[in-house]
Amino acid sequence: MRDMSATELMSRHNIDIGDVSHLADIDTIMDVYRRVGFKDVELVFQGNVLAFDNFVGNNLAPGQSTSFALAFKRDDGTGHVVLMRVWKEPNSNKVNYLTTDFQRPVAHPDRFSQWMPRGARTYYIIHPKQVTYIAENDIANLVDEDVVMSMKEGGMQNNCNGRRVIGYLASWAKKSMSVNQAARFTNLIYAFVRMDADGGLTIPTDTQAKQRLLDAFIARKALAAKGLKLAVSFAVGGWENSQHFSNVVGKSGSRSHFINNVAKVLNDYDFDGVDIDWEYPGTGGATEGTKEDKANYVTLLRELREKVGKNKLISIAGAAGEEAMQGFDIKNLVKHLDWIGVMSYDLNGAWDSKWGAFVGPNSPLYHGAPLGYSGKLNIDWALKQYVCRSKEPGKIVLGIPFYGRFWSKTVDGKDPKKYPLFRRAERVNGKFGGDRSYRVLLNTWLLPNSGFKLNWDDKTKTPWAMLPGNNLVLTYDNPKSVKEKINYSVKNNLGGVMVWSVDQDDDKLSLTKALDGACAPRGNSVNYKCSPLEERRWWTYTEDKEKAGMCGKSAPLYKGYYPLCDPDDPGYGCCSPQGYCGAGEKHCSCKGCVDYTKNPQLLIKQPQKPSRKVQWHVGFDKVKPGEPRCGSSAPPINGYQVKPGEPRCGPTAKKVNGKMAVCDPDDDAAYCCSKWGFCGQGDDFCNCKDCINSKKINLSKLKPSKFIGVYKPILHGYVPKERKVFYTQDVSNFFLQSHSWNTWPKWNILRRKTVLFFAMLRVTLLLVLEQSLTHALSVNS
Fold this sequence. Notes:
It is elongated and about 120 Å long. Helices cover 25% and strands 16% of the residues. It is an alpha/beta fold. The relative contact order is 0.06. It contains 20 helices and 28 strands. Strands 5-6-8-9-10-11-12-20 form an 8-stranded parallel beta barrel, surrounded by 5 helices. Strands 16-13-19-18-17 form a 5-stranded antiparallel beta sheet. The protein has a 4-stranded antiparallel beta sheet with strand order 1-2-3-4.
């Protein structure tokens, strides 16, 4: 049967040609062996099954196991490879075989078998040692010399000047990664190895996943021959496989089991490191997290470092969103890590929220949205948080997406002329849109005659495109935006850049080539204006929807402090005199405005806690959003109703902590109480008769009014300060004792008569009502 062709062999064994996915020619098999580079194999079994069986029996001890890749060649030039797992049972010399033939469909009886491949005697096994020799001499030819020279000139040979250019290689990617593409990276991360519920690890076994892993190891070997270093790590977790982290990491036993499995994979596969992609500790992602995750994550990395030592790389994928970032103890995590790769993409996408679906850049470098948008959905904000908290910019890596996001149907946003990209999305067939790789975009939507209008948003440094008609909007990264991010990384002394994912580049490697320059020399200093506070002192929307955005001395205290504005949020980093956080001239550049973004040191220079126990009303009055509540910039009191019948300060205002309400002595804009019960500054509030200046008087000696009752007529929003009204059981004896006219403003005679007229009218109506009731009672009796 040695001379039998593959076709004749399949006919003899009743194998339908349709059941075989392909018959690899022997050159393909030889190429696979060249790339693998087998080592330390001494024997060759030229189709002699008995010799192979004897070799296994003589070299395996009871309980031991090993694996082989067996290549078979036929006389017609065809051949294929099978994977064979061989083991001896404990306390026995019995040999077991498990063969996996990937050329057969899963349902085929010979796909998995416990014997040598049927018909193996008609083939021979390629001499692995000979292939090793060929690989050592030929694998270097896979690298283009021009690429090698370019990379060495760019600093790759000098280990990228201590920085990194990292590429994720997706196990499910259909497109292979060439050695020439890999030459432009310092690190590759194979994603993902699955984490099991008990902390075990499962490596993908399908042919495509194995081929991607092979791509990485081939590249490492080939580049090493040219003097270029490439480290290969494996990633655990991801959006769809982070569900077990909380349980596993939270228990010492399962955590140790997980760490031991990581160490085993590192050693068995000769990986250079591991990347933990927990999405997300604390807040959760596709699955919920726990509050203990934050501390447990630090424990995991500390123990992992102790286990694998300093020679193995440990990295993590970090969140870019504010909420998800709360679960990362950056300051302590970074102590055990080589780097944190910040996933600074997916900051806008085709998903819904309770406010609607908004269009914006997938990976904006800077804030560039209209007023009312958060200033935190950008790379600059996210990277600043990691650097300022860790104080180690060299360990923080900027993430770059090799894909774009789109919205199928959009309408104008708040300010379409000034901000044409920031639109609103509508559903099409139940969905808002999706994503596309850069390779697909370049070959479809971005073609010259596709009808898309190409744009560049200079504020966010983002390319985007729109298709007229249904207004489909696409945001993505191109070589220009990638260069902007490379320059940003160098300027801020970051630890480099990372890419998700290398297979999504086009065939010309346009985006990969744009990474050149990432290894430029740089310093180690922190170049951001970091907040001097260890914790925030401002209200967030998630904490309190009503208080979020309040600031200054008239706002509700935050943890005992006057609330400030977030200095890292360019959309809400300034406090207006009216007590609102925002941006623009009305919040940042006006008289009385406080700009925390430009000068974060103001956070600690200003008084932070009240100078005395609170004895004043705080918080928003019931006014329209954005309107001032009191002070010289507030609307005139005449006609301005803070809250009907309730002044803010003075004897007629509601008590605060059991004492008469006054104005905040720390608030330079409103520290005086006017005789009408409003806080402000100037003569009308500080220097009039009955005005109370909180900075000059002893507030503890002030006492509320001792009047039996207070009559509070409302006229144009005014509440007179001292109006005494006494009541008796007999309604007919009701009378108005005093209006204390001298405490009212100097109104004209007509207004005084009007007030008196309505007061007398009320008394008359009450008397009439009493007489009617008396008459009714007498009739009924």
